[in-house]
Amino acid sequence: MSTLTDPPKPGFRLSQLIYDTRYRSITIQVIALVLIVGAFWWLGNNTVNNLNALGKDFDFGFLNSAAGYDINQRLIEYDNQMSHGRAALVGILNTLLVAFMGCVSALIIGVFVGVLRLSKNWVVSKLMAVYVEGFRNVPLLIWILLIGAVMSESMPQPREFRGEDATQSMYFSDNVAVTNRGIWIPRLGFANSISGEDAVAPIDGATPVAAGGADWLLILGTLALSLIAMRYVRNRADKVQQSTGDRPTIWYQQLAILVIPVGVVLIALGATIVSPYLKGFNFTEGTHLRNSLIALWVALSLYTGAFIAEIVRAGILAVSKGQSEAAAALGIQPSRTMKLVILPQAMRVIIPPLISQFLNLTKNSSLAIAVGYMDVRATLGGITINQTGRELEGMLLMGAFYLALSLLISGGMNYYNRSTQLAER
Amino acid sequence: MKKTVFFGALTAAGLAAGMASAATLDDVKARGSLNCGVTTGLVGFAAPNAEGEWEGFDVGVCRAVAAAIFGDPTAVEFVPTTGQTRFTALASGEIDLLARNTTWTMSRDVDLKFEFVGVNYYDGQGFLVPKALGVTSATELDGATVCIQTGTTTELNLADYFRVNGITYEPVPIETNAEGQQQYLAGACDVYTTDASGLAATRATFENPNDHVLLPEIISKEPLGPLVRHGDNEWADIARWTLNALITAEELGVTSENIEELAATPGNNPEVNRLLGTEGELGAMLGLEADWAKNAIMAGGNYGELFEDNIGENTAIALARGLNAQWTDNGLIYSPPFR
Ligand SMILES: N[C@@H](CCC(=O)N[C@@H](CS)C(=O)NCC(=O)O)C(=O)O
Questions:
Q1: Interface list for A 185-224 with B (CB within 8 A)
Q2: Does residue B113 sit in the same domain as residue B234?
Q3: What are the pocket residues of ligand 1 if the criterion is a CB atom closer than 6 Å to any ligand atom?
Q4: Who contacts B163 (Cβ-Cβ below 8 Å, separation ≥6)?
Q5: Separation between Cα atoms, residue A214 and residue A209, nearest integer Å
Q6: Which of A106, A122, B1, B213 could form a Cys-Cys staple with A305, CB 3.0–4.6 A?
């Protein structure tokens, strides 16, 4: 009798799927996959069944039918006989407008406040702290409602500006009107407009003017060329400085390059300032910044600005103290130290969280509903869905739009981020 | 981490799975209450009172339907909806019945797949302006700023009216009547436009109602009525015939006062007897108790009583019956016969 037994044959037992580490991870993944596929199938199937039960189909044809409703703020031509698709586009542009304005002003506010909060001046730094804590800790919706309410409740009505015994008057020598329906500011009109639009006199007896995309393209194009030329001049000055040690004075060249071409274009176009004036129920002419835009824009900027301020502060604090001490030892002034030494390094820390703030701001702009700002949620995701009953299609389109926009913003910012990162060798 | 995502997806799927069931009556009975969509607050039509109980003309329809089913007018869950959310709420099954000043239009009936079960108020769109504005006709409103509730027929009528008359306006879109009232009173809009009944109800809550006038123009037809989803005819029948029972009760002189007596000692008017279930099988045909209509009428009175109690001439809203008088009084309110 032998006391030796053969080692057990490595046969496969079902329990190994759970207890054997070689198989366990595969088992879990397969189960998860089956469940996830099942869940999606169920979701899809459920949607199809429900649509069937309601007798509805899945069709984007509604985008071509007449919208029938009016939109107050239009960046492109639109009237109520145009299509739901066009209305959606008007809404999209309004979303982009407020998101862009918000991102720019939130960034400016954030950088200022973030830097000032580190100020050695006690009053300044505490004031900034109050601002940051005040805005960060109260929900955005409340700020939007509050600013909207202040605008509509406490500003004067347009008719209070009327007549001999007007109780209100315009600001900046009759150029700006602040009312409970928004703020009217002057706009530019072009007597020799190249846009092909009909010129009309803004007020009886004035020179007829028009303003269109082509005019603005010309002006902005000129500006862009000037900026490129300025960069060229600056680069040349840098080169001279590097080879000779002396930096040529170029500020007057820069100024001339910036101002003269645009000035010439403006004069050639016959640019005039068109001021708003009271006509009938409302002010007319000029540019009308509606309450809804102002409330949403200001609230978004101040709210997100508070977060950006903290990000900026953290970025600055992340740059080691030795850097500013070294700069001081080299005799660089504090303001230049901030600009040339600290901020460029802080940027590396600041940009990634900044991206999420911009994304937040853009998506938060859909809180427009609180003040009736006609963004894409209000047109496509609101009235159009309601009038056509195309909830699923409308929501999917809107989701796709916000997704695409967010990806675009983070793509662009990531590109910028890469260019500011330390180039490691 | 993977697990969390997975369970998240499952929950989302579970939430999205409110199947629009075909047998609404069974669902309602199983739940023990009726989910009724109403306004977010329009005094006289649907608004919570000081005790937090919903009351009003549209609320009366909800209560009557609940009473017809359960014999209990309080077996209602009121769901406040805005002009924009109401149809999604109904289509998704969140509510069983929508009674919210909703205009019966062809596209809502046919394209949005709803079933209007009748008209409980014949209305039209009007304009409310402050007297101080000195405007006497809607045609003088060129360039005015107009508060308009989004997702309504009135929004479309407004656009049509101004386009046809070749005048312009600046719309201020609002979400609820309360918001409209606030904007209008603050002077952020010159004009408030919606159904004339809604304007009367809104004006009644102003501090100085007499400082505001309704312009003479009525620019549209707004037959307002309760509605249900397409596809469940039995459920639509219950809602339709409950409304008809209220209307017929007024026509036949059945009121909340005399109804007990009429039901206890059936007289010799056969239609009254059929209505109150003391004769015939009308209740059973609907799948309800024989006294369904009696309960519905007792909930808040017949059509005329509901009207007078909530929006009639003795209330602050002070609406005359007008088009909403019985057909026997030259109005449009008319129910098919109970037989
Ligand atoms: N009848 C129109 C308008 C209905 C409507 O929204 N009416 C307003 C004013 S009469 C309302 O009920 N508002 C109450 C709320 O805001 O919840 C429709 O069906 O589209």
A1: none
A2: yes
A3: B 39-42, 82-83, 101-103, 149, 152-154, 176-177, 194-195, 198, 222, 224
A4: A79, A80, A81
A5: 14
A6: A106
Instruction: Tell me if chain B has a CB within 8 Å of the CB of A383.
Output: yes
Q: Are residues B9 and B55 in the same domain?
A: yes
> Using CA atoms, how far apart are residues A332 and A337, in angstroms rounded to an integer?
6
Q: How far is CA B183 from the centre of its chain?
A: 24
Q: Could you tell me the CATH number of the domain that includes residue B260?
A: 3.40.190.10
Residue B95 has pLDDT above 90, yes or no: yes
Cβ under 8 Å to A: B residues 218-247: 229-231
Question: What pLDDT, on the 0 to 100 scale, is given for residue A23?
Answer: 85
| Whole-structure pTM value | 0.86
Mutate one of B86, B109, B160, B172 to test the A interface: name it (highest A CB count within 10 A): B172
Considering the domain boundaries, does residue B335 fall inside one? no
Q: How confident is the model at residue B17 (pLDDT cuts 50, 70, 90)?
A: very low
More confident residue, B277 or A424: B277
- Report the C-alpha gap between A144 and A370 in whole angstroms: 7
In terms of domains, do B143 and B91 share one? no
CB atoms within 10 A of CB A259: 11
Above 60 in pLDDT, residue B7? Answer: no
Q: Dump pLDDT digits (tens) for B252-297.
A: 999 999 999 999 998 889 999 999 999 999 999 999 999 999 999 9
Say what the pLDDT of residue A2 is.
Answer: 53
Tally of domains in chain B? 2
Domain edge (last residue) among B175, B198, B220:
B220
| One-letter amino acid of B192 | Y
Phi then psi dihedrals of residue A273, to 5 deg: -90, 125
pLDDT of A425 reads 59
Q: What spacing in Å lies between the alpha carbon of B81 and ligand 1's midpoint?
A: 10
**Yes or no, beta carbons of A70 and B16 under 8 Å apart:** no
Q: Look at residue A174 in the predicted model and tell me its pLDDT.
A: 83
Q: Does B110 touch chain A (CB under 8 A)?
A: no
Cβ pairs bridging A and B (under 8 Å): 129
From B163's Cα to the closest Cα of chain A, the distance in A is 9
**Residue B183 included in any domain:** yes
Do the domain assignments include residue A25? no
Q: Is residue B53 part of a domain?
A: yes
Does the beta carbon of B91 lie under 8 angstroms from any beta carbon of chain A?
A: yes
The predicted model gives B84-102 an average pLDDT of 94
Residue B195 lies in a domain: yes
Boundaries of domain holding B68: 2-122+223-329
Picking from B164, B189, B220, the residue at the C-terminal end of a domain is: B220
Mean pLDDT of A201-224: 86
- Contact list in B for residue A391 (CB cut-off 8 A) is 88, 91
Instruction: Determine the structural domain holding residue A96 and report its residue range.
Output: 58-158+289-403+413-425
Q: Alpha-carbon distance A113 to A134, whole Å?
A: 13
Which of B12, B112, B171 is opposite residue A72, by nearest beta carbon?
A: B171
* In a shared domain, residues B113 and B239: yes
Separation in Å, CA of B14 to nearest CA in chain A: 9
Query: How close is the nearest chain A Cα to the Cα of B268, in Å?
Result: 45
Task: Say which DSSP state A273 is in.
Answer: E
- Grade residue B22 by pLDDT with cuts at 50, 70 and 90: low
Q: Are strands B34-38 and B76-80 parallel, antiparallel or unpaired?
A: parallel
pLDDT at A8: 64
Q: Is B130 on the interface with A (CB under 8 A)?
A: no
For the segment A307-356, what is each residue's pLDDT rounded down to a tens digit?
999 999 999 999 998 998 999 999 998 888 888 888 888 988 898 899 89
Cα-to-centroid distance, A314 and ligand 1 (Å): 50
A-chain residues within 8 Å CB-CB of B146?
Answer: none
